[in-house]
Amino acid sequence: KAGVTQTPRYLIKTRGQQVTLSCSPISGHRSVSWYQQTPGQGLQFLFEYFSETQRNKGNFPGRFSGRQFSNSRSEMNVSTLELGDSALYLCASSFLQGASVNEQFFGPGTRLTVL
Amino acid sequence: EDQVTQSPEALRLQEGESSSLNCSYTVSGLRGLFWYRQDPGKGPEFLFTLYSAGEEKEKERLKATLTKKESFLHITAPKPEDSATYLCAVQPSSSGGYQKVTFGTGTKLQVIP
Prior knowledge:
A: 0% helix; B: mainly beta; five-stranded antiparallel sheet; 58% strand
């Protein structure tokens, strides 16, 4: 079974630009979560999507947005990039059924550098 | 607010020297506690899920245990390839089916040959 894939793997942007990151979950997984990871803050939750609906959102400004498509693939967008947005952006997918515990499986991440 | 604290921040072991990593958590009811391994520049790799106090799970040289307030990841006779950052995360029971998972900042383990 193929794992979670993320594209691109590396990105270099300048301040003020916008960026779109893509995530393809494991086949059959309907939940996709996005995280930002920095050395100082660790893994910070951005948002979670399930069946094309955003169900949870972390404490990030409105410049961070996302969406999920009918095939469960997800994209996240960051507009008006700031230097502090430089980070590893991770996507995780899980198979959600009812109110059970669900393990998340992570992709390799997209390393975003803002100059 | 859910909190996860991992200690130590960094740990250096000689090959074969067993030790334990700690994950202390504060959550209003635990639905699940997760352990992940993360290599530099890569996404976290899922290791274990623990559901209730007293539960233990093993995988090769790793054993995870759970109490009502903390979890331990025991590493027996580690090898250099066990070097990585180990992350702990909790999902509260109040989250329903949602992925409201809180991560600790991890323990960076280095195993020296």
